[in-house]
Design brief:
This protein has 15 helices and 15 strands. It has 368 residues and is α/β, with parallel strands linked by helices. Among the domains are: 114 residues, Rossmann fold (3-Layer(aba) Sandwich), CATH 3.40.50.150; 69 residues, no CATH class. It has a five-stranded parallel sheet. The protein is globular. 30% of the residues are buried. The mean pLDDT is 93.
C-alpha cells in the first residue's frame, strides 16, 4: 500500500487520524461509565450543580458525567473537546413515551420459568445512564463518531429473560430505538433470525403490509418459553411461524420467497462482527437484509481500515500475519485486499471509509 498525497490532502489525513484517536478515547470512556458508573448520578447532585452554576439540567448532567470519570473540567481544551463529542448525545427521556410502546403495553409476565430460563422485569433507576442510539458517524467531519446517553427521571421497568440468573435479553430503550428504522421499512414476507423476547416480530406483526413472519431460532428452550408465555399475548399470532434451526444453515438452504430479513443473533458489536461478516457472505439477491446495530458493526471495519492506513502512512513495521484474535484476522485480510492500492487523494480514502464502500468491501474479502 502506498499513500502519496499533496500537502493539503496529507493534512486532512492527519485530521482523520486525530479524530479516530479521539473516537477511541470517547467510546472507551462511555463503555467504562456504562459498566461501572451508570448509577452514580443522583438527583440531589444534579440540583446542586444546577444551583451553583446556574445551568440547565443537561449541562449539570454532563458536568457530573465528567466528574465521575475523574476528568479535569478546568482544562478548557479538554472540556471543549469532550463537550463537542458528548454533550449533544445526552438525552433526558420521557418515561411514559416508552411505557406506551405497544409491546410494553401488551406483553406482560412476572417470574415465569422454564428450567434455567426465567422471564421477569428489571429496571433503570432514576437518572441511571444507559446507551440509547446506535453510533452515528459523520462522514463529512473526518468520520467523527457520535455516541448517546439516555436517562429517566423516574424508575423505568422493562422485561428481561435471564439464564441462570444472568440477564440474557431485555426490551430497553436502546433496543426500541435501534430497531425502529427496520420496523418502519419492512413489508411483505419477513424472515427474522433470532427470537429473543419477540419484540421485533411483535412490532412488525402489527403492520397491515406485513403478511407473514418466519422466525428462525436454534434454542428450543427459548422457543418453548416464547410459545407458552409470550406468543399467546400477540394480537396477530397467526402471522408467526417459528422454525427451530441454526440461522446459517437455514440461510444457506431455505431462504427463498422472503422480502426482508432481519438478523439479530448477537448482543453487540463485539460478539456481532463475526456473525455479521459471515452472514453478509450468504445474502440472497432477492431479499433485503437489515442487521441490528449495523452502523456499529460497519464502524468496526472502518476503525480497522484507519489502523491500516495509519500503520502504512507512518511506515510502522507490521507483518499482517499474526492472528491472536478475530479482529487480527479482519485487519490481516483487509490489508491483503488493499496492499497493492495507491492513494493519491484524501477523497479516495474518504470513499474507502464510507458506509457504502465498506458494505461492498465486506463481500469481497475472505475473512471467513
Amino acid at each position: 500500500m502506498e499513500i502519496k498525497l499533496n500537502a493539503n490532502d496529507e493534512n486532512q489525513l492527519k485530521k482523520l487520524f486525530k479524530t479516530n484517536e479521539i473516537n477511541y478515547t470517547i467510546s472507551n470512556m462511555y463503555n467504562y461509565f456504562f459498566y461501572n458508573l451508570a448509577r452514580s448520578i443522583k438527583k440531589n447532585d444534579l440540583e446542586s450543580i444546577k444551583n451553583i452554576n446556574h445551568c440547565s439540567e443537561k449541562c449539570a448532567y454532563f458536568q457530573l458525567f465528567l466528574n465521575h470519570l475523574g476528568i479535569d473540567t478546568l482544562d478548557d481544551n479538554s472540556y471543549n473537546e469532550l463537550k463537542d463529542f458528548c454533550f449533544q448525545g445526552i438525552n433526558c427521556l420521557d418515561n411514559q413515551q416508552y411505557q406506551n410502546n405497544p409491546y410494553l403495553q401488551t406483553i406482560h409476565f412476572h417470574n415465569q420459568k422454564l428450567n434455567d430460563i426465567k422471564l421477569d422485569n428489571d429496571c433503570y433507576l432514576p437518572y441511571e445512564s444507559f446507551p440509547l442510539f446506535d453510533v452515528k458517524v459523520d462522514e463529512e467531519n473526518y468520520f467523527k463518531e457520535e455516541y448517546s446517553l439516555g436517562y429517566f427521571k423516574t424508575k423505568f421497568l422493562f422485561p428481561v429473560v435471564s439464564k441462570n440468573n444472568v440477564i440474557w435479553m431485555s426490551i430497553i430503550p436502546n433496543e426500541i430505538e435501534t430497531m425502529k428504522k427496520s420496523i418502519n421499512e419492512v413489508k411483505g414476507n419477513i424472515l427474522v433470525y433470532g427470537l429473543g423476547l419477540g419484540y421485533y416480530p411483535f412490532m412488525i406483526s402489527l403492520k397491515d403490509n406485513v403478511k407473514m413472519i418466519t422466525i428462525v431460532e436454534k434454542d428450543l428452550k427459548i422457543i418453548r418459553l416464547f410459545q407458552k408465555y409470550i406468543l399467546p399475548q400477540f394480537s396477530n399470532k397467526e402471522k408467526i411461524n417459528i422454525i427451530n434451526q441454526d440461522a446459517f444453515e437455514f440461510e444457506k438452504k431455505h431462504n427463498q420467497g422472503y422480502d426482508y430479513a432481519f438478523v439479530d443473533l448477537y448482543h453487540g458489536d463485539e460478539d456481532g462482527i463475526e456473525i455479521y461478516l459471515k452472514f453478509k457472505k450468504l445474502e440472497k439477491n432477492n431479499c433485503i437484509y437489515h442487521y441490528w446495530l449495523e452502523d456499529s458493526l460497519i464502524n468496526v471495519i472502518r476503525r480497522n481500515l484507519i489502523t491500516i492506513l495509519y500503520e502504512n502512512y507512518t511506515k510502522t513495521n507490521c507483518s499482517y500475519n499474526i492472528e491472536e484474535s478475530f479482529n487480527d484476522r479482519i485487519i490481516n485480510h483487509l490489508y491483503l485486499h488493499l496492499k497493492n492500492t495507491t492513494f493519491t487523494t484524501y477523497n479516495q480514502i474518504k470513499i474507502l471509509l464510507s458506509k457504502n464502500s465498506i458494505t461492498q468491501l465486506i463481500k469481497q474479502i475472505k475473512i471467513i
